[in-house]
Amino acid sequence: MSSGHFITQFGRRIEFVRGYLEFIDRTMGIRRSAEPDHVLSSQNQVGGHGNLDFQAVRERTQGANRTRRLSLHGFGTRLSRFHTFYQMLRDTDIKLPFGRHLDIGCGFGLQPRLIRAFGVAENTTGIDIIERASGIDERHLGRQYRMLKWLRPLENWQERIDAKPAAQRGKYEHLIREKVPGPRLIGKRQGIFLDRDIYRHKVVAPFKLDRIIQGNVFELDEKFDLVTSFTSFEWFDTRDILAKAALLLNEGGILYIWTSNWWTETNVAGLVGHFPFAAQRLTREDYFRYLDQHMPESAEALKATYGFFTPTHPTLADWIEAAYRAGFVPLGHRSYIQPQPFTLKWGVHALAHALHNPPVLAEVLEDIHQFRPDVRLEHLMPYTYGMLFQKVDPARRMNAETLSRATAEVDIHYRPTGVAGRLMKRLARNVLLGGR
Questions:
Q1: What dotted CATH number matches 32-259+309-337+381-391?
Q2: pTM of the entire structure?
């Protein structure tokens, strides 16, 4: 069992938690080596997108687009993320479909294919520095969606199993809970609560991408009506990528971002330590010093991963402020807190500390406030954020014409004329409003 402590540059003493790192290693695991593709393709690692060696990336990643089929669980994960976006769209008065759509950091390109197939956009383009999207077997995607709908009757069974304490689940119950890829349960484990409409999407077009681009999004000079990013914006400089998204969108266009939260306990970067929130509560210099002193076998791998994440480490408020400065207004945002305190994939979640050791959150905030006084408790809890923005003309001003149009839209008063009209109004008032 590990024991000891670390002194920060601010003179604060952080005690190691006995068994903490060992638990992390048994569950999510600890990086022992950096992923070459991530180091090679990270603009944050090299000080900006202008310093990336795209030719080296292409040579290093040749063959990444080999033909493959995602597992049904992988398809269900992407479907749950798509439906999260769709639910946010549905809560606005945005009219569908969009014309041209761009997905930045498209990876395998599942979400943009779903956006096209389910009629959200008529034309979709995916762009990524590493080209993996063309290798997906598109003919198989429709069968996977139908199979998920066939498995839907198992969902209620999964929910009953999920409600049981882990110690009371039988072997087959554990198998059904973990291996049957119900998209609503997949979403629930990430704090995303999806309605049953996820099974009611109508397929109106093939599951295909109209175009796949391997290259630098900052060199793309086109216009789109919808731009999306599913877990890629955290790998760009926040202000740079938002400014570029604004240039890519037509006025009135929509931007959707689904991004990992830096400030939570075990975010997508997988940075860990002998105590809670190790990477978050230390400055970069302190965390690197801690790694050299106490985790030398993983130090280089974790340092490389640390540099992959956007260096501004934005909170939700920072994202909204940066988007506003780039020419966007927020239409909606969601914070997703993982509901399970502990999981095999991600070890210890922020909720575990809130439930089992509440004082540690105050200690973490005190450490963070030494260098980031704007961070609050609400920023430590979510695992991910979903944000929906609209591009606006900053020169636009409200005037009499704007208010006149608005009056026509909101004026729903019925002013009947004639005897028949007044009788209908009286009848409606008596029947529908009880005579009031």
A1: 3.40.50.150
A2: 0.89
